[in-house]
Amino acid sequence: MKKAKNILSNNIWIWILILSIPAVWALLVPGYYGASDDLHIAWLYQFHKTLFLGQIPPRFVPDLSFGFGYPLFNFVFPLPFYIGEIFHLLGLSFVDSIKGVFLISVPLSGIAMYLLLRQFLERNLSLIGAILYIYTPYRAVDLYIRGAIGEIVSFVFLPLIVLSVIKISEQKSFKWVGIGALSLASLVLSHNIAAYMFFPFAGLLFIIYLLQTFAKKVYLAKSFLMIFLGLLISVYFWLPALIESKLVKYDTVFNFADHFPTLRQLIKPYWGYGGSVPGPGDGMSFFLGGANIFLLVLGIILLLLKWKQIEVKKKILLGWVLSAIFIAIFLMNHRSVILWSNLPFLPYFQFPWRFLILTTFFIPLLLITFGKIKLNNYQLIVLLTSIILPTVPYFRPQDFLGRVDNYYFNRYIPAPVASYEYLQIQEEYLRLPKSTQKRPDKNYPIVYSDLGVIKNIDKINDLKIKTNVVSKDGMVLNLSKYLFPGWTASLNGMRVPIESGSPFGQVSVKVPPGEHQMEFAFTETGFKKVLDAISLAAFLVSLLMVKNLWFILRKIGRSF
Q1: Other Cβ atoms closer than 10 A to 172
Q2: Which of 77, 261, 292, 449 is the 20 to 30 Å CA partner of 500?
């Protein structure tokens, strides 16, 4: 098999970039279009603002929910916003920064799929699989209808995780341990739902390769190290999210039972720009793709016809691929409702059709059934054309609205004053703190109380406020921010307890009689600082592994 560096020297990656252009050209049109998740532009603004308030990593954003803030990036996948922040720091607007994340994810996902398929196929067939991965209709849904930035980025890392599981069974170096760890962590940080969905299948693949390898102890150790480092890199995010999810109400705007696509919807080449609704009258498409369906049927036929000629390792691998595809299709069908009602975390996915993530990823792997077949350039052109031409009309938005940053700030940022547009939508998707009795319905003063006198307010920044108060008989002072771990209050320079106030679950402090100086601030808790340090250390170790850490350590060892 050719190594990645040889593949790049053959300019395959350039061909993938060129062939990706029809999928991403619409992103180059100025302004933003009518994707349903357009709030990510406002979230990137909040990410940027919080980062420059000195909160590293960003967790609690200051302006959402009528200025009560929200621990948004304590629960929402942060990696796409880190990437978007890089684009913004390079001078792009927030709209263009989000589109930049979309744009680079498409060819990068194709390159990742190519590298995976190249382990089993000649280069032209591998290129076919990479382009099929890019031009699956669900990818267009994510890009131009949903604007689902987390899912869009996650498609880059699914092939890299599988490739790492395979490579660590073949190579003695620790390079792919590091790549696997970084890819695993990146998937968690890109889209936690995609990670939950994919990890059981990745775990099954690991068991398959463990049973097949001769050096089981070495493979087991390297795999454990890859998983361990991947979880440590992302632990700063997933562990607080897991622990502190108990502090917010568990509810969802969507009921999974309303969003099962029918089998007909999976095979019917319908296309629309509407949403997912109860029943079969959805405005959006759940089409698997014509080329994808053809490959699925042909792959099964070839597997049956060539069963005796296919080596055992590939049979097992293809069994894994087909099992994943049919499990995903089953879980998208209403007949799986008993599993959705009883399996932990499954209802959290909200939409059963999200399992199109798995069919999108696994179906191109059925090209492995073609074995050692080689395509000439004419056949390659015909197949690429048959994949791209039928689906390329999907890769554009319904309307080029040309909207810029201020439109989304006005629509989704209710601070310092909520706009009319915000009042029409609010933020029903945010899970409120458990102590919240009702959602705020207007902007409140940053500090307020029914008793005593607030002499002045010194707003150092949106996450640090000082005020002087005079209380005759004692008072309860409220800060218009949701109480969440990280908020602190100091009375005359001494830390004092804070409570959850009524009715919003705001930060509240009991102030004794007299004149006092109060200070409120949001900081990273000690526990999270430890997790941040662990994640950084694991990230650096994984980077060293990619740079042949084992060779470096052996060289250091000889020097002693």
Answers
A1: 10
A2: 77
